[in-house]
Every structure is written in structure tokens, then in C-alpha cells.
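Assemble and predict.
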Amino acid sequence: MSATGIGARVVRKEDHRFITGKGRYVDDINRPGQSHAYFVRSPHAHATIKSVDASEALKKPGVLAVFTGADIAADKIGGLICGWMIHSKDGSPMKAGAHPALAQGKARYVGDHVAVVIAETLAQARDGAEAVVVDYEELPPLPDMTLATAKGAAAIHAEAPDNIVYNWHLGDKAATDAAFAKAKHVTKLDIVNNRLVPNAMEPRAAIGEYDDGDGVFTLYTTSQNPHVARLVLSAFIGIAPENKLRVIAPDVGGGFGSKIFIYAEETICVWAAKKVGRPVKWTADRTEEFLAVAHGRDHLTHAELALDGDNRILGMRVSTKANLGAYLSTFASSVPTYLYAPLLSGQYNIPSIYCEVDGVYTTTAPVDAYRGAGRPEATYVVERLIEVAARERRMDPTAFREMNFVRQFPHQTPVIMMYDAGNYPLALKTAMDMHDVKTFAQRRSESERRGKLRGLGYSAYIEACGIAPSAAVGSLGAGVGLWESAEVRVNPIGTVEVLTGSHAHGQGHETTFAQVVADRLGIPIENVSIVHGDTDKVQMGMGTYGSRSGAVGISAIVKALDKVVAKGKKVASHVLEASEGDIEFKDGQFQVKGTDKKAGFGDIALQAYIAHKFNGQELEPGLKEGAFYDPTNFTFPAGVHICELEIDPSTGATEIKKWTAVDDFGNVINPMIVEGQVHGGIAQGVGQALAEQAVYDKSGQLLTASYMDYCMPRADDLPSFEIGMITTPAPSNPLGLKGCGEAGAIAAPPAVINAITDALGHEDIAMPATPQAVWRACQKRPSRLAAE
Amino acid sequence: MAMTMSGEVVLPADKATVWAKLNDPETLKNSIPGCQSLEKTSDTSFAAVAKIKIGPVSATFRGKVNLEDLDPPNGYRIAGEGEGGVAGFAKGGAVVKLSDDPAGTKLAYDVEAQIGGKLAQLGARLINGVAKKLADEFFAKFAEAVKAGA
């Protein structure tokens, strides 16, 4: 391993820019003649819009235009789309209501976009918005799934009269019922997966621009996938054909899934730029983000696990209601279905699984993918069920897991997935050793002497990353293929630009991708630049989400690099006057096998461009290759996290004392960056378990719309993490990468709750386990201390 | 979100005087905190403009106020709804009951209100405190008016 190659802890190249304030985010960009947009949002959860009167607003100083749903309809601007078709049990397609970028006739959640005011300055746009008079007639608010699915509830969309978008299922119901019929023990659990608001450090922002000279629109946007944004804005929303629409996602300050989607605000900015003949800028304030960014999670689940007399798992039955919010966001339909149920087998050998999911419309913000997207929800179900089953059977939870682990690969689960590599017992053993589980009992006694309750919780998670084989996801309803593209441009002096369809918004691609290129081409890492995030530079790409940039994005780069080396060998055969088959490429040198005749990578690059040593008709000059890589399987990162915590029963305060994570991400390019991803993921998972919750009241008002009311995890809520890794390379991609971006957020919530319930001595607590909830749980039943 | 509040004050005047003041737009206008205008649109309804600050949100509410369930001189329900533009909306009402008291007239009120939009998003934690403060301000001024008119 070189100091900068694959496996090295290379300091992030991009950090100089970020920590010296040189990052260039959308809000840092200002275009000549720029105007500002401010959205008039519905204060009602559910209301008919009888009229919108902009006459006073248009008289306000600086106001250039006010647009409503009628204006976008007149321009035939299409609605926002949901790109994954889900079919119900009876084969009928999901019932999707229209999602106009500005409300037409009805507002369906607090924060729904009703009108936009465009003015010279942001303050003038706000003042203009103040003067827009909207006449609402309130309709019944339906902010939760129970209200929305109650008999006689008002329809949020006419297309879904009972507010059910789909009732979908996966697995063999008859086989699962048969497994339960012969079970000796059944564990049953009701589970709430709390609703979260993604909180990227940079809120969403957009600038739309129109060049009247050549008819080209440009959109600067906070996107994780600018090409997908361009595709949707062109092909479905109808802003402009793709060749007349450039989408740039410059530095983006965190996404966590929330910036995958194509939202109303950027659509309006780019459309309105032509209408007003000026660039139009919008930057969300934090409360707008709480109101209108796509939220995450929000499931109600009943789950059952069937065991035989030896405590082997026979089957699993899961019934989930998933809140999809007021409109179907870009990938909303897939999150509680194909990104959820196929992970219900966990790390375990479960012969039969049956899962049914109702997707429900409510008068709340749309819900879509958030770090982990379906997999945290599945893992929470599996790992809570496993832990509770072990406790009910009076088995050590690690022995119960051991007994039921998948041990042979490949392993076909009953829910689509074929696990190709892993070593689950090794991860568990490694984690237990690192954590010093053996001496936990002493630590617990010591806590109890101080009047504290100590608990230990496990989470043995698996996830499916590297999404995804295009034909496979196509057969499941995805509207796109999930390959990735790369282009490697070698300059005549041997420096390299790599154009990737992946997008970095905190992941450190400029470093890790460059490490791979430097390693494969044997050139200094400084000679490699990674280019991404601009549809005018990169031809096409599917973007970054689902921990796919390594397994899919880098695989595309590797494929293109292989082509570069192959072409380099052809050039080298002329330069070194040897046959192409005798040229070897190693450590940046093209060498004639068995001789000392060789030429460096840079020399061959120069020769490729000056083209003096070969016939340009027989061998094309230049050194530039592209590749599209379509994965052959998902990848399956897995691992074990152990959370040890202490509860103060007099205050309900929970303190995490120790956290051990042992993950199997396959081969790792930069361990420092991977550890950073694990740290951040755990912090987000702990946030879900202990603090975060989006709350709508009965009238559909969002009560948690600022950091006063929405509690984010802080550094002092977290211990210093113990991180370990084991490696089983992914067989499905050339570098054996699995992906690490979401693992912590997936693993952490059940580890925390399993530890809290271990400390409490009962299972009666839901996320977020705030001090108040924990204190109540301590009062509800005798705690472990009182019982003993 | 919903907000409820109740309380009572004793006013140094007889029931008939208090009742008259409760129906006098000028008195109401002077007593309602932040009220910029209150115009009678019928015997039992008014158009009102009031400027109110709740925590970080300040807004000018334009709305209508109706007097309902009139039971002179024992009480009524005063109901209103106002749109505060970008700040959101408020609507609700108060049941007001008058009864004789050794020191004059006892006025009991029972308020139920709904707020929405930015008011609920940012002001939720503050709304009860603000409502109590606004009610105190209202009755302090109203008591002065009653005293002056008694």
C-alpha cells in the first residue's frame, strides 16, 4: 500500500477548501441581475384555496411577479413525480395524486407551496408575500395515519379515496402462516419508527437562470443527483429539453437523502427565471426546511417471530403502516416497500417471511428516503424482535443470534435478496471482545451501587447498498436504471481528470476517488482531479445515495481506468516497439515483459496525443475513456454495534457510556473517511433513538419547526466510539467495496433501545427515549433495581 | 394548535355598565392589545386590525369579530378569526359571563383558540404565556374604562 493508494488514511483534499471558507455552495453564488423568490406557504394542514389575490402584493416596492398554481398550469408545467411504481396486492397500480409545484385548488399540508413572490431583494419578496391574500376554506386535518385511514375520513387526493396509496406485500403468506402454526413460541411486538426531519447543515437552495440568447436554462441546486434532476425537470416537468437545461450541484453541505428529490422550489426558480427575465434565487430558512423538506421514517408496525422448541427461527410476519405524507415525493413509494421488506431477514436464517405494507396519505410534509431509507426501519424491527425473543426465551441475546446466523454464502433469503459474502459470527465475536462484554456484570453492579441502571444492547444489522442492478430494480418498479458512469480524461502531460456521475456532499469523493486513480495508474494523487456535479461536464450519472458511490461509482471509474490502461498498452507497443501482448503495466510504468524497456504513464500519455509513433488511422490518437457500470448484485455491508448506557431513574437521563462498532464494509479505500461515516451515522441513529421527533398536532400544525423544539444529538450526548472492522470483500464489484455511508444510522437505534430496555427490565418504551419517556418508563413498572 | 385559557376578574361597576362597555367598539378597541382599528360592520360584528408579537413572530392580523349567543346583560361569546399573512392565522373565541359580586360585577372568561402557520411553528411554547399576558392587559384597560364610565 502506498501512502496515498487504496487503504491509506489520506487527509481529505477538499478540506482545505471547506475549512478555510472557500467552499462554493449555492447560496454563495450570486448571478448578475439576480432576483429573489419567497414562497407563500399554507398555514393550514388541509384547505381548499378559494382564491389568491396578488393585487396588493404586486404594488409593493420591488415586487416583479407573483405566480400561483394557475400560472404553472397555463405554462403546462408538469407536476413533481414519484419515480417508483408500486403495485398493490391485487395488482392495481399505486394511487398517486397530482403534485403541482404550486398548489392548484387545494393545500395539503402546513408549508405547501401556494404562491411565489419574486422581487428585487429578499426583504421585498417577503413584504410582497405578506400582502398576498389567500382565501382558504379549511378541510379536516388528517395529520396521522389513524385519522387518515379512519372510516369516512376526507380524501386528501381524489385518486385515493381512502387515503391508502397502496397495500403492498412481499413474501409467501401461506408458508409463513404454516411456520407460525407449528411454532413453539411466538414473540410479538408493536413498533413505532419515529418521524424525523433531515437536518443537513446547508439548507436547500436554488438559482434558476435563463439565457435568452441561446435559449438555455441553468439551475444551480443543492442536489445529490444533478442529472436525475435534469432528467425529471426535462422529461416530466417540461422546463426545457435536456440539451437546453444545465443543472449544477456545486459544493453541497450534506444531503442524507433529502437532496435526492426534485422539489417545488427549484422547479419554480428555474421556470420563473424565464418568466421574469432575471435569475431567481431562493434559499430555505431553517423553518422552511422543517416544513417542506422530505421527512423520514414514520412507520407503525406489528411484527411477530416464530420459534421452534430449540429457539430456531421458523418465520417472521410483519405488518406496517407507512406515512407517505401529503404527496408522493420522488422515491417515496419505494422506501417502505422494496428498500424495507427485503431487509427483514437481517443476518438470520429465516425460512419464511411475509410482510404487508400500507402506504398512507396524511396532511403532513412528504416522507421519503433519509439516511438508510427503509433499512433502518427494517433493522429496527428485526433487532428489536430478536432481542425480545431471546429475552422471552431466557437466552443470552448473543447466543440466540449466533444460533440463527446465516453462515453459508451465497444465501438466498425468502425476500428477494441473495447475500453474497459476510461473516456474521466473526463480527459479533470481535465486537464482544473489543467491548469487553465479559466484565459488563461488574460495571452494572458498580452503576447500581450509585443508584443507576446500566444496560447493554446489541444490533446485528445488514443493509443492501450499491444500488443497484438496473434490470432487477426495473422489474421491481424503478423508473430508472441504477448504474453509474465515469470518464477518465488523461491530459498530454499525464495528469488526469475523472468525471463521475456520483456526487459528493460531504463524503470525500475528491480524496477517495483520487486514491483509486492514483493507485491504479501509479501516478501522484495531486495529479488527479475529480469532476462532478455539472451536467455540462459529466455526460450522465445517477448520483449519490444508498451508499452506492463506492460500489457503483468507483466501479465505473475502475472500468474506465482499465480501458485507459488497455489503450495505453497499444500506444506503448508502438513507442517501445514491442507487440501489445508483451506490454505490462505496473506502478505507473509500461514495460516490455522480460526486458528493461519501459515508458512512464506520462510519456505514453504525451505520445498518445502527439501521435508521431503510430498510424493515426489504425490507432486513434488521444487518451480518454468512458464507462458505464451496471452492478450485478446489491452489496451487503453488515456488522455488530454494542451500546452500553446508564440511566438515572430519578431524572430519566440516559448517558451512553461505551459504544463498539464492528463493521464489514468489504475492502476500504480510506479508513479515516470510513470511520468518519460510521461516527456520523451512529450520531444520527442515536439522535433518532434518544432525541429527534417531528410532531404535528391534531390540527396538523408542525410543532417542531425549529431547533427550539426539534432536538438534535450533540457531541456531549455521545461517547468516543470504538470502531473495528472485519473484511469479506464484495464479490460483485472489482474492488470488493460494499459501502459505509448509512451503516451507523441503521445499526444505532435498536442498539440504544435494546440497551435501554435491558436497563429498565421491560420493553415498554418507544423512540425517542427522551428523559421524560425514560423517567415514565421507570415509574411504570418496577425497575431492575426495585425488583431485585 | 389549540390553546385554552380561563379566568375571572371583578370589575367595580354594576352588570348593566359592564355589559354596555362589552358592546362598545371604542372601549373594546382601546382595551384589545395592539388593536389598530375596530369598525362595526353590523350590530354584532366588527372588522378588526391588530398588531401582535408572539416570541419571534410579529404580525398584523386582519380579521372579523362576531358577538354570538347574546344574553344581555349576562354574557356572550366573542369569536374571531384573523389572517396574519406569512405569520399564520389565529381564530377562536371567548365565552364571557357576568354575575353580581359584592365589589361590583364578576366577569368570567373561557377562551379557546387555534393558531397555525409560523405562530404555531415558532410560538407554540410561548403562546400560553403570551395569551395570559394579553388577557391581563385587556382586563386592566377594560377595568379602567369601566371605572371611568361607572
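Chain B has one domain: 2-149.
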